[in-house]
Known about the structure:
Layout: H1 2-19, H2 31-44, H3 67-78, H4 83-109, H5 111-123, H6 125-131, H7 139-157, H8 160-172, H9 182-197, H10 204-227, H11 229-232, H12 234-239, H13 249-261, H14 283-298, H15 304-315, H16 319-322, H17 337-358, H18 365-385, H19 391-395, H20 398-410, E1 415-418, H21 420-423, H22 426-431, E2 440-441, E3 457-461, H23 464-473, E4 478-485, E5 488-495, H24 506-521
Parallel strand pairs: 1-2, 1-3
Antiparallel strand pairs: 3-5, 4-5
Helix pairs in contact: 1-4, 1-5, 2-3, 3-4, 4-5, 4-6, 4-7, 5-17, 5-18, 7-8, 8-10, 9-15, 14-17, 15-17, 17-18, 23-24
Amino acid sequence: MWSLAGLTLVVALAVLYRTYALDRIPPGLFGDEAADGLVAADIRAGRSWPLFIEEPATIKWSSREPLYHYLTAGVFAVVAPSVWSLRLSSAVLGSATVLALALLARRLFGTRIGLIAAALLAVSRWHVTISRIGLRAIIEPLLLIVVVHAFVILLERRTRAAAAAFGLLLGLGFYSYPSYWIVPLALLLVLGVALRTGIPQPMTPLWVAAGLCALIVAAPLLGYAAAKPDYFFARAARTAGVTATPYGPPFLLDNAQRVLLMLHFRGDNNPRHNIPGAPQLDPITGALFVVGLFLVLRTSGLDLERRVGLLAFWLLPLVPSAVSDSAPHALRTLGAAPAVCVIAALGLDRLAGAAARRFASAGPAPIAVLLIAAGVLNWHAYFDQWAQRPELAAAFNTDAVRFFDMALDLATRDDVYASTTVDQSPQRRFLSLRGEGSWHRIDGAQVFTDSAPARDRVFICDTPALEVAVEELYPHAEVIAHFAHDGRHGSVYRVRRDRLRPTLDKQQQARIGALVGAGGSE
């Protein structure tokens, strides 16, 4: 009963930290979030069923795995696409990760360790931050935990059903996030230790069955990788450290140092992912992790498989960031968070045991006090510090979202025409899913005329050439807004319907057509 009550409390805490004020924090909508939301909306509408999300050749490095998008499409089927529902999908996945960690850690280390580890992950600013952003990195820790749990069940039960379930989940993970590729490596390391220490019953047929199931599930993706390696590996090539200058052992050693110190000294500098430069762990969790790591290295009460597993699933998820051109990186190392929380839980359990021996009346109070304190620190760090930082609005394109909201509102009353760049912005396209207003693209001189206009005409121009086109034809046009988006500055003009030209002569058509062409190519 107490176990169930504790698990319910921890999961409720995880949900609270991931959904409170989700409509306001973080603000705005980052372009990558909007792009992922558009893919999910296409899946939900049945317009697309991607095996791999392939972007145009000019941005092929943005091609990515689709599992997160299918799950988000499921959320969109229940709740209409919006910034809130897009981020809700991440919040749900993040909360499910906390539950999954509680179940796995309980199986491996006992109920108390399971609850403590899950509670630490539930309030972890590192994990909470990514759980509230609409990006696919949040799915990797969940898949990691689920696959490890299936692996443990296979070792315990040694049945064909367990082997098939493990293989299917292992293969599914490859559709999640590039950092997942370290999971099979870590499992092979643990398996090697388990085989060396002795498995009482031959399991070769089961491992073969699991491997075949994994290959069957991953085969379509592997086939795509073989057919289009330039797309499949484009993102890895772009982010890999081999693109750095100079590249070599000094670069990798410096990156390794950065990622090893990210928990306690200096974390991710990207304001979208972290308080720039702040450690990924709060001081309490960080101190408990040091104690727990000391216990793991000393072999105190743990068998070799569990010790190697904890170390492998802490260190190996750091590798993607260590070989990356931006280290440390909170998203690429997020797979280490579950093992970090389990190690910290072992540390807290040992300290609580020592306190109980010294002060018999202490009971579970030290554990409760430290967990509450960690929760308060992380709440303050996320909602009071990170959420209030001035650079956060720029990091999430908050002004751009306000601008697009304004423009879409204008489109409910006026005929709105926008430059190609603005029209194709993923934020604009995603926000337009609400259906509150539609606009047109400035694609030729004809958009500047109308023989029988029913509404005023609004032009959104993000280049000097397009601004010149409007001002030459309509010198008295009203400038109703100025904006900046993706490094471009522009103006929004309104032309009253009674002042719209019915036609342009040939010279004007040529001149305005040239300006429109120049505006589209700038």
